[in-house]
Write a structure and sequence with these properties.
200 residues, alpha/beta, 2,3-Dihydroxybiphenyl 1,2-Dioxygenase, domain 1, 4-stranded mixed β-sheet, 4 helices, Glyas_Bleomycin-R_OHBP_Dase, VOC domain-containing protein
Length: 200
């Protein structure tokens, strides 16, 4: 199940405000302040720390079966998408990724698989990454632009099945063009990083 995407962005506060306006809530904020990583989780808000020189490593937001994360970057950069998989499928996909000579990074919380298209794929087995895997509020599809063709074929080889949740197009940069979601009322439609949200 597709559940997640992550960006690096200079527009950290603006990105949080965009998703909050659409009903997605802040789960956690972790940032580097005065040389140490610290949490700035709710109920703290931006009025309390906006003027501090915090470099946010991650802001995690959730609603239903949706998990969106972002952190500070000097420029907008799409980093990865995430899929929920079973423990068994996780191992199968990892084995296939290694056979395909893709870079694999495994830790206790999640696994990342590198792609030749400039972004990574996260495999997630922990159920607490979202509020509810069975929620009607979910990411149905992502339209991803890459600089070269072949993303759909790579996903089919990696997962050993078609992945209709990913719509692949070729463009001048690698990014998410559209996120098609369900069971949410949109008040704003284009996030500060250029992702257009649609309801299905």
């Amino acid at each position: 199940m597709l559940f997640h995407y992550h960006f690096w962005t200079p527009f950290v506060e603006e990105t949080e405000e965009f998703y909050k306006a659409n009903g997605v809530y802040v789960y956690q904020r972790i940032g580097k302040y005065q040389g140490d990583f610290q949490t700035f989780n709710p109920p703290q808000d931006w009025e309390e720390f906006r003027n501090k020189k915090i470099i946010f490593r991650i802001i995690e937001m959730k609603k239903g079966a949706i998990n969106i994360t972002f952190g500070y970057g000097k420029k907008i950069m799409f980093d990865h998408i995430g899929f929920f998989v079973s423990d068994e499928d996780n191992q199968k996909i990892l084995n296939k990724a290694r056979k395909m000579n893709l870079n694999v990074q495994v830790n206790e919380r999640r696994t990342f698989i590198g792609t030749p298209f400039g972004f990574r794929i996260e495999l997630q087995t922990h159920h607490d990454a979202v509020e509810s895997e069975n929620s009607l509020t979910k990411i149905n599809k992502l339209e991803i632009s890459t600089k070269s063709d072949g993303l759909s074929k790579l996903l089919m080889n990696l997962f050993e099945e078609d992945i209709p949740q990913i719509i692949s197009t070729v463009g001048n940069k690698t990014t998410i063009l559209r996120a098609i979601i369900s069971n949410i009322k949109l008040k704003k439609t284009v996030d500060p990083n250029g992702v257009k949200l649609y309801i299905e």
